[in-house]
Fold this sequence. Notes:
This protein is an alpha+beta fold. It is built from four helices and nine strands. It has a single domain (7-128), classed as Beta Barrel (Small Protein B, Chain: A). It has helices spanning 14-17, 32-39, 88-99, 130-153, and strands at 7-10, 18-28, 43-44, 49-53, 56-60, 63-64, 82-85, 103-112, 118-127. It has a seven-stranded antiparallel sheet with strand order 1-8-9-2-7-5-4. A hairpin with a 5-residue loop joins strand 8 and strand 9.
Amino acid sequence: MLSVNATIAENRRARFEYHIEETFEAGLQLTGTEVKSMRLGQASINEAYAGEKNGELWLFNAHVGEYMQAGTHLQHQPRRIRKLLLKKKEIHKLMGGVAKEGYTLVPLKLYFDDRGLVKLLLGLGKGKQLHDKRETSKERDWNRQKQRIMKDHG
């Protein structure tokens, strides 16, 4: 069972695929069985994305596994669309950013905050091109080598 300040799910590929320029913390409108499943760590945002629908922001394609201790009539749909809870000013800022060419809303991390509420860290990012991804890989590999050298000789 996950505790307060615990990470439920993380989209590790997002920072490799996108240049994240700004992050926002959003709440999620969830049902009871979804929260219980998340407490058990049964969630994934690897294929998820955020978008606008009727002037509100929604989380699409996020997977929250079914809570098996409940009966079948109380279950939620694992890939249902979930509403993101943000202030109007933040929504307008994000939608203005998405209106720019090449920008998108990327879910980065799903976690419990200090009060035990489920939060989503949302990034405003621009897609990387192939040469940028290669540069990121080279930099990551060099940092690993540097750490090994420092460990061996330090």
